[in-house]
Amino acid sequence: MRWSIRLYRSSDAPIIADVFRRSVEGVGTRDYSAEQVAAWAGLVPDETAVRARCEDGRTVWVAVDEMDRPISYIDLETDGHLDHLYAAPEAVGQGVAAALYQELEGFARSKGISRIFVEASEAAKRFFSRNGFSVVKRRDFDVAGVPMHNYAMEKKLR
C-alpha cells in the first residue's frame, strides 16, 4: 500500500468518521470484548462532529492512500494532548501510525511543547510504549454502562 501524510482538510471529515469506526470495530476486537467494542463504536462521531473537532484549533495530520483518501489520522491539541490516533484495518502494520506519530512529535518539539499525553487503548498502549511513553495510570470507566479501560500515558520531550 502506498500512502503519504498531509494536513487535514474539511472534506476529509466523512472518511475520518469511517476510519474511526472501522478502526474500533476491526482493531479493537484484538483487546476488547464484543460488548466493549460495540459500546466504543457507539462513540463514533458523525461528519459534523469530526469537522468541529478537527477545526477547533488542534492540528490534525492524515495519512492518505494513492487516491488521497484518509486511511489513518492523528491529532494534537495546543496543550500537548494527543486525543486521536486511529487507523483503518488495512493500514495497520504498514508503518502509517509510526509515521504520523513522528510528524506529530516533530511538530510538538518545534512548538516548544514539553509533554505529549494521551489516553491509550490496549493496542495504543503497546504502540506508545514503543515510542517512549510511560503509563501514568490505568483508567477504568463505563461507556453506555459497559466497563472499559484505557491508560493515561505521557512522554516528556527534551
Please describe what this structure looks like.
The termini are far apart. The protein has a four-stranded antiparallel sheet with strand order 1-2-3-5, sandwiched between helices. Helix 1 (13-27) packs antiparallel against helix 2 (34-41) and helix 1 crosses helix 3. The chain is an alpha+beta fold and 158 residues long. The protein has one domain (3-156): Gcn5-related N-acetyltransferase (GNAT) (Aminopeptidase, 3-Layer(aba) Sandwich). It has five helices and eight strands. Strand 7 and strand 8 form a beta hairpin.
CATH architecture: 3-Layer(aba) Sandwich
Radius of gyration: 15 Å
**Strand composition percent:** 25-35%
Q: Quote the CATH topology.
A: Aminopeptidase
Give me the side-by-side strand order of the main sheet. Answer: 1-2-3-5
Shape: globular
Category by helix and strand content: alpha+beta
Query: What is the CATH domain class?
Result: Alpha Beta
Helix content: 25-40%
What summary fits the major beta sheet?
4 strands, antiparallel
Count, helices: 5
Number of strands: 8
Number of domains: 1
Mean pLDDT: 95
CATH superfamily: Gcn5-related N-acetyltransferase (GNAT)
Q: Secondary-structure element order, as H and E?
A: EHHHEEEEHEHEE
Unreliably modeled segments: none
Distance between the termini: 34 Å
